[in-house]
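Sharing a chain and its predicted structure for anyone who wants a worked example. Both blocks are below, sequence first, tokens second.
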Amino acid sequence: MLSNVVLPILMLAVASVQAIWPIPDSISTGNSTLWIGEVLLVTYNKEKIPWIRGYIPSTFTSKEIVKGGVSRVATNILDKNFVPWKLYPRLQLEKTEPSLWKPKTYVSWLEIVQTKPDTPKTYKPLAGEVDESYNLTVGANGKATISAVSSTGVLRGLETFSQLFLKHSQGPIYTTMAPVKISDSPVFPHRGVLLDVSRNYLPVESIYRTIDAMSWNKMNRLHIHATDSQSWPLEIPSLPELHQKGAYALGMTYNPATVAAIQTYSIQRGIETIFEIDTPGHFGVVALSHPDLITGWGASPWSTYCAEPPCGQLRLNESKVDPFLDKLMADILPRVAPFSSYFHTGGDEVNFNEYNLDPTVRTNDSAVIVPLLQKFIDKHHARVRKAGLTPMVWEEIPASYNVTIGKDVVVQSWLGDAAIKSLTAQGHKVISSNYNYWYLDCGRGQWLNFEGESFDENYPFNSWCDPYKNWRLIYSYDPRGGLTDEEAELMLGGEVGAWAETIDEANLDTILWPRASAAGEVLWSGRFDASGKNRTQVDAAPRLAEFRERLLARGVGAEAVQMTYCTQGMDGNVCLFQ
């Protein structure tokens, strides 16, 4: 007799040796085995689409987006799956996995139904403008159905469908969970990863791989911190001298075609890429091409003038700055606007001491600097809005500098819960990158060198933001914790941060994954289950360990969650502290 018991979200069946990440709103499963192979009828709104590998969408249409999603799922299920020996009890895999010799029922039909047409906003939404919900059923007879309001919801359902399947030790692909019934939707509309490509250049392939992994976690915002005082890898055709003098090396740049390709690749996976050009701080490298625009380049001791070397900020009262920014933004904004509704203008860590060195300011007096910053932000955000985009800023702009910003502006907060409470209480829309929980570069030691007195003062050379943010700490964070209902409505979600002083293509995967997955579940599923109980590490650890195996099988070098002793049997209590 098939079991079809609706499980509480907190207690997915351990015996199934299968689980979904991030955990759905509701799920019921059985214990029947289904197989899946090269032959599968797939229909989208009653029209047949191919179950093939390698299909790349040709346009931004619902059907093309779905066809691409189906093709990627086919690849992941059939070619990039894994044998779950780490999940079964010790030496029990071959004894307990489905028999190859019994009669088989195959998944024979995947029916996809999109109930409403997409709009242009589907592919470049503001927070909350696209419905990502989906329903998934898989019958014991081999009929599967995904229904969703949008093509983005279809993509989320396809990812869940792919996670039902495992690889047999002899090769075929199966699930033991049929019949399946899942209903799912996200808690937060903004679920992101911040990549810093300026302190260390990241090859496009690394960015693509990150986008893929994000889509498997149902994350939907990639924030690219594109420029900083250390390097300018972003090619601006109207200002070619910026990358020609500011890139680390020839070829370590992102040209307009590459920028469009990254954004296209993202949209095809239900992700919106948001570019950031930080201003007026973190702008020092522009001094190599436009020295008359920058103050503080090469200033020493740098710790007096900036958060890290090299220093350099835009001069606040220099008449040449506005024409320069007009030209810069007139180039980049129309190119990113077809793919995104946001543009991040930065605004963090503006050091007022640096304006002592600015010949147009010559003071660090906030009474002088704040009005200049207000004028700067007003003009800069007007440029963003003129291009049809919504500005984003770091929290220091409204919180530390007392600069007034528009109600449309999204504020990215990194300084902690008190800052978020204050921002939302003032009516600002906020996304959280709370460094106490979600800065993935923290806790890995210093990147600066020390000698003399500084050696003793900084020994044993911990990072500024210790401790290391392990997945359990990341998973414990509730972005809406401590907020009133009204304030919580303004909390749009969050981003994990990967600041790249010591991150490049060689260690990017292990820095991000599966720790970012922990944040991904918090943002998709919420910190609390349907009964209001806090989700536990005991429940999460086995599912995250399984998901890590999927990441590895799909080509992402994710670090281990636990030793195999803890994962075999999929029982989080095995390694529960006593």
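Comments welcome. The CA atoms of residues 65 and 268 lie 6 Å apart.
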